[in-house]
Task: structure prediction
Amino acid sequence: MPAINYNLKYISLTVLIIQTTSMVLALRYSRTVQEDGPKYLSSTAVVMAECFKILACLCLVCYQEGGGIPKLFEVINTEIIGRPWDSLKLAVPSGLYTVQNNLLFLALSNLDAATYQVTYQLKILTTAMFSVCMLSKQLNSYKWASLVTLMIGVALVQMPSESKEPEKPLTATNQFIGLVAVLCACFSSGFAGVYFEKILKGTKQSIWVRNIQLAFFGVLFGLMGVFVYDSTAVLSDGFLQGYSKTTWMVVSLQAFGGLVIAAVIKYADNILKGFATSLSIILSTTVSYYLLDDFTPTSFFFIGALLVIGATFLYGMEPPKSSTITTKPNEA
Result:
């Protein structure tokens, strides 16, 4: 059994690295490549990703519970339909996740993949902040040091960089829009994640059932976004206008990303998760430079990225036991 858990740990981390890196690069490519016809609508991509997530979670619940389709309907009726107020609690984080997903499309339409990857690690800071406020968590000295290091690293990454093609219209306005989108996504991710954690700690429901509830509200909120911002375009060229193989890849990666993270949380620890994040940043930077040709790293970027990677590791570490244990006179 330990050997199986050991293998699952590294399998889940490998999948996380591939998923995170592929998601960022595919999304960036899909938003910048020039194709014939209209470009796909990011608002509809968010809705389709939530639909895929519902289907995946239904399959996982069916597998987990056993008993096939009849048992699945029984779980849905008992845990979701039969507990409407309990399900309604998920509307808050679901709405925030929907906003976050739309912001990430906006961010990667205006930032290169490498800068986005590093800056988005600020979600560690926002999650820690909301954890202290909402869950009354105590942060040790390592975590506080990592948060300070993280802020310095992200600030360095945002320093002006050179462009391989100076005539290319990647303006300061693009950088500003992308940065604001990432920062808003970090706050949305932090609050939604802590709120969801608080709900999970007060219930015995399966994580997959909770994800079905999240995705259901995500579809509703996503369709509202489509109606408000893109209804004219949808009526003109259809809901799936501009969809290509790359678009469907982005939708699939976005849908299954949360499920991969759930597996990592179950089988791996924070240090290994930090290692996966670091490798993903390095891979995104390399591919963004050599293949997408939209990014030239500077010394500021390298220093900032190293600080962010170090902060990610540091946040997952615990101080030596001798420094955390104070007095336990009754243990002798």
Notes: The mean pLDDT is 82. The chain is about 80% helix and 0% strand.
